[in-house]
Amino acid sequence: MDNKVKILLCEDDENLGTLLREFLQAKGFNADLCPDGEKGYKAFLQNQYDLCVLDVMMPKKDGFSLAQDIRNVNSEIPIIFLTAKNIKDDVLEGFKIGADDYITKPFSMEELVFRIGAILRRVKGKREQEVTSYKLGKYTFDTQKQVLLDGDKVIKLTTKESELLALLCHNINDVLERNFALKTIWVDDNYFNARSMDVYITKLRKLLKDDPNIEIINIHGKGYKLVAPTSEEK
């Protein structure tokens, strides 16, 4: 990752904070760790961050207060709250302040990375004009009209088919992680949704089968890869 995504991580549990920072860095992010809300706010003012991960219960300044201060400076930056509590009022408070997501401890670090990825993808989609058309071998995929064009032939896609194909195209000739796709499109990566996604992958393979240069391959233990000669059209 050339331009690493820069994350402000505020967590007063030193062990957890260090583990999270190291894990995020191993995943290609640039993460700064602050042990309390005051230091977090100073770091935020001094640096340009792409996303904040804030523990709710912190000394000197709690996560909610810090988020409000951050929002006063930058109303757009995505914020994820980490909390040991799973109290409805706290969750509502977090979303009122403008949280983009909320994770209750204990959580898997992989899940945090997936949530970060999903939020950054949404933000990127808002900031940039998203690619509305992909050229895939003999096909043209129009993401807005949800159609696959094969010469004069128009193949209408369902919303799920279109969303999944768009994700594959976004990661063309690269691995689309299975859990990321599930959380992005189906929200939950449970067994039934995973089976549903397998069905949609099979459907997409059938729709693209007339071009021998295109295939969707299984990457064992990871996800899928759309292999295709490609060019993007804005």
Please give the structural blueprint.
Blueprint: E1 6-10, H1 14-26, E2 30-34, H2 37-46, E3 51-55, H3 63-73, E4 79-83, H4 88-97, E5 101-104, H5 109-127, E6 133-136, E7 139-142, E8 147-150, E9 153-156, H6 159-170, E10 175-177, H7 178-186, H8 191-207, E11 215-219, E12 223-227, E13 230-233
Parallel strand pairs: 1-2, 1-3, 3-4, 4-5
Antiparallel strand pairs: 6-7, 6-13, 7-8, 8-9, 10-12, 11-12
Helix pairs in contact: 2-3, 5-7, 6-8
Highlighted features:
alpha/beta; 234 residues; Arc Repressor Mutant, subunit A; five-stranded antiparallel sheet; five-stranded parallel sheet; elongated; 2 domains; 8 helices; Rossmann fold
With helices defined by DSSP (H or I, 4 residues minimum), what is the helix count?
8
CATH top level class name of the largest domain: Alpha Beta
pLDDT averaged over residues: 85
Query: Pairing-aware structural class of the strands and helices?
Result: alpha/beta
Give the oligomer, counting copies of the same chain as homo and different chains as hetero.
single chain
Query: If you compute it from the alpha carbons, what radius of gyration comes out, rounded to the nearest whole angstrom?
Result: 20 Å
Poorly predicted runs of 5 or more residues: none
Beta content comes to 15-25%
**SSE arrangement, N to C:** EHEHEHEHEHEEEEHEHHEEE
> How many domains in all?
2
- Tell me the major beta sheet: 5 strands, parallel
Q: Fill in the CATH topology of the largest domain.
A: Rossmann fold
* Proportion in helices: 40-55%
Terminal Cα span: 23 Å
Shape: elongated
The CATH superfamily name of the largest domain is: Response regulator
Main sheet: strand order: 2-1-3-4-5
Q: What is the strand tally?
A: 13
